[in-house]
Amino acid sequence: MQDDMTFTVDPWDPGYSAALNAEALAELDATSAELDLDVEMSAADWRPVTPDPGTAPPDVLLIADGVRRIDARVWTHTSDGAEPMPGIAASCAAGIVRCAPGEGAELAAVEVSRSLFSASPHAVDIAAGYRARRAPGSGMEELSLALQRHLTRLEVELAVPHRAGDDLLVVDGPLRGRAHLPRTVGFIKTHHTAYLPAPQAATVSRLLPGQRTPIFLMGTSWRRHAWYLRLPGQSGMPWAGVVRCEASAELSRDDLVRLADSVSHALPPLAGVDYKDPRAPQNLIPIGGLERLLRHRLGDARLLYRALRSAAARQPDLQPVP
């Protein structure tokens, strides 16, 4: 071993996927996204941006998050002789945390939903408390997508009644399905795709805690503005503490800059710490606490599975239609 070799250890618990996908890091030039890198400044002039000290953080920060769990795989049957169709019985929970200076963080709302997702037009509610909902197809990916869309709707419905004044809503995950909400930012902790070309990606690596990249516009199957922000942390890993923030594609440049600077003031003080959270600093302290609460509210998976089995056993056997 050479004496001048050094290494760093990823602070995230290895039980979680890495904050930065190694293959994405190795292929920074490879992306199918349409990019406009000149939104805030010319792509050739990209450099770390220190948020304007004259831009204040929001008076009230609302954080929305949700968790999901598949409780059982199921098959739906009909009496017309048609092939049984697969589905999933799933639980999800959404919550809102309200953060205000001098008041700390408090739970504003929680809602739990249990659903049977199936592409079958004949699916009905299950007696164990699972409401039948249509999925676009019978594949596992389509069933999972239906579950995720339902959770997104749940988060939106929960957040809207708690909006007031000039608050800021941060949703854990991409902004998709929520871009129409005013003063709302998506918060992405892990990087599975490298969207920036190498010269601009190098700007991300140079960010100091609290700094962000210039704003850019990205389009995949949907369009949104985005920027990268580095949260404070101790690791020397590439892109350590870096998160991606997303905002509506419809915002003006001036509104975007104010929003990005306000977010860059508001989020670093909420960064997770590694001795409390295996996904620190990207997993914000309010998000980590909310996730633990929501998983508890999902209920005991073994009891729910048993309830589903019992409900299935109590059903009458279907007789073929003559």
UniProtKB/TrEMBL annotation:
Family matches, as SUPFAM superfamilies? Ribonuclease H-like
Recorded hits in InterPro entries, A to Z, give: RNaseH-like_sf
Protein name, entry field: NurA domain-containing protein
What is the species of this protein? Nonomuraea insulae
